[in-house]
């Protein structure tokens, strides 16, 4: 008997048969991502209103500020680097690390693949791209560098914690605390949740272990991170808002739009 020929795929003219509002999630996430990109770009190239020296407030977008043209109060680690031309922002050191960490993040890949790249926009929705090669070719092969960006981002998080400790300072140099202190620490906690719930963090603590019984401390950390891991997307989006809110508050106080609400000193 002659083998039967394979039937061709059904020709469906509709892009999808879904009747729900499937466009809403990718459009919302895409708008948030674009808002953060525009806001952070404007603030990085603004070059001012990034520190409140009296209270030790420093925006995370400019930390660490290591250039000679940084405001002295913002240089928590000194100024070992020379002054840069105007087209290189003061946050040029940390921003590539943070941007690389988020761009290669598993959650953000899904977010901007669907919302900005339309690949695909939603489940059971045809994508407009005719060819798909996955993350095996340039530039998407660079997504494999996420684990390395994680270690750099962990260093940046430690720097943010150090900056947050400076906020417990009053105008007279003694202990003090204001609304800016709370806002900065909330942002640090959101960034810590995002970093700690990362898949690369989970792998770093327990991914290569063959016997958990021989590494009880790393096993406990792996269990803790595994509980945080399902909330990784939540921390990813929340930390975007906290970074913008923290920067905006510091900018407003630094520019004199309003004064910091002080609780102590």
TrEMBL record:
- Give the highest taxon in the source lineage: Bacteria
This protein's record includes keyword Transmembrane: yes
Tell me which UniProt keywords the record has, alphabetically.
Answer: Membrane, Transmembrane, Transmembrane helix
What name is this protein filed under? Succinate dehydrogenase
Q: What sections of the protein cross the membrane?
A: 27-46, 86-108, 148-168, 174-194, 234-258
């Amino acid at each position: 008997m002659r083998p039967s020929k394979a039937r061709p795929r059904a020709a469906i003219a509709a892009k999808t048969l879904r009747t729900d509002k499937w466009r809403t999630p990718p459009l919302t996430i895409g708008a948030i991502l674009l808002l953060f990109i525009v806001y952070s770009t404007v603030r990085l190239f603004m070059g001012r209103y990034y520190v409140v020296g009296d209270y030790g407030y420093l925006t995370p977008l400019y930390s660490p500020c290591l250039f000679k043209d940084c405001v002295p109060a913002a240089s928590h680690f000194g100024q070992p680097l020379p002054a840069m031309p105007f087209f290189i922002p003061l946050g040029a050191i940390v921003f590539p690390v943070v941007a690389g960490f988020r761009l290669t993040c598993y959650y953000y890949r899904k977010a901007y693949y669907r919302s900005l790249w339309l690949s695909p926009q939603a489940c059971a929705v045809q994508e407009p791209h005719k060819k798909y090669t996955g993350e095996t070719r340039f530039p998407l092969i660079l997504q494999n560098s996420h684990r390395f960006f994680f270690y750099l981002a962990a260093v940046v998080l430690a720097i943010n914690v150090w900056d947050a400790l400076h906020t417990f300072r009053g105008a007279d140099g003694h202990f003090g605390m204001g609304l800016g202190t709370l806002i900065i620490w909330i942002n640090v906690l959101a960034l810590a949740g995002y970093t700690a719930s990362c898949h690369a963090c989970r792998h770093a603590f327990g991914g290569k272990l063959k016997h958990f019984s021989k590494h009880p401390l790393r096993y406990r950390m792996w269990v803790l991170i595994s509980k945080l891991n399902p909330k990784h997307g939540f921390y990813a989006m929340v930390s975007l808002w906290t970074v913008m809110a923290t920067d905006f508050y510091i900018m407003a106080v630094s520019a004199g739009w309003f004064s910091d609400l002080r609780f102590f000193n």
